[in-house]
Amino acid sequence: MPFASGMRNILPKTKFNYLHTERYGQHNEHVKVVPLEPLKENMDGNEISWVADPIIARGTTTIEIIRKLSESITFEIGLFSHVAANREGIGRIQTKITDYRTQSFMNYAFQSQKINQETGFLEDGLEVIRDFGDKIFGTIGQDYPTYLIQNDIERLLETDVGNIELLKGCILFILQRRNKYKNDKEVGWATGEWLRESLIWYSRKRSLLKGFAFEGIIDHAIADLAERKFIYYNKYPYRGGIAYDYYISEEGTKIASAAYLPILDRLNTLKLINTDIDFLVHKTSIEIKKNYSK
């Protein structure tokens, strides 16, 4: 987000795209890259593709991002900016991509020398990542002051990245409001399905985030918040499978109150969500879907 905000400030007409990445495998060796908006519609025809990825460890994420971009858009020059990049990851990026050719450049502020082969995480240089301590130690507002986060979101309004941040703010606020019903026995779990159907309800009945087609990316926004430990979940056995019951974390409450909610309040979004929250928390995802489908 700070990368995109800085680009927006310097080059106001820059086109943005938000790429959600998920690592998986025993040693996090595989990466799935999901563009949260169609790449061709937003970026096709650009001569330069600039990728901002704060950390390169093994390089696997950057490699898959480059491959995803090459499948969807045409660009003559690729620029890759990082705060910290591991020496091993840099070498892997330079040697492992052999299925296509493009001119590319990489820049970074710190070259890491140590990497954990089991997890794929850096073991040095993390002090140069401004908000790293916030993510790991729950110190929101110290390494990366919340007023800067709010400024970044403000600057990104009316872009896809800004809209996705507003969506995440809505999810945090819904969970925050829902927490006040925790002693109500008629209120069920806040599953991913319940969150998704509630947001679609607001979109169709109340024009939530009007003009932004976010229905297909809600699950990715939830996963992004969970990865950043802004929301947690409990697992429960349900119908032969597992159900996830989401709730906002202490860190999520802090960042929501300081960074997201002031903007959503100014946009009248909090009032809009409050209009139906009592109705929605007493309905299952199936019941909500039946109501907005009428």
Largest sheet properties: 4 strands, parallel
Query: CA-to-CA gap between the ends?
Result: 38 Å
Structural class: alpha/beta
Query: In percent, how helical is the residue content?
Result: 40-55%
Describe this structure in words.
This protein has 294 residues and is α/β, with parallel strands linked by helices. It folds into two domains: 2-129, Rossmann fold (3-Layer(aba) Sandwich); 152-292, Orthogonal Bundle (Arc Repressor Mutant, subunit A). The chain is built from twelve helices and eight strands. The strands form three sheets. Strands 3, 4, 5 and 6 form a four-stranded parallel sheet that branches. A two-stranded antiparallel ribbon has the order 1-2. It has a two-stranded antiparallel sheet with strand order 7-8. It is globular.
Question: Any chance you could write out the topology, listing elements then pairs?
Answer:
Elements: H1 2-10, E1 19-24, E2 30-35, H2 39-43, E3 48-52, E4 55-56, H3 60-72, E5 77-86, H4 87-96, E6 103-112, H5 132-137, H6 146-156, H7 160-178, H8 192-206, H9 218-227, E7 231-238, E8 241-248, H10 250-266, H11 269-281, H12 285-292
Parallel strand pairs: 3-5, 4-5, 5-6
Antiparallel strand pairs: 1-2, 7-8
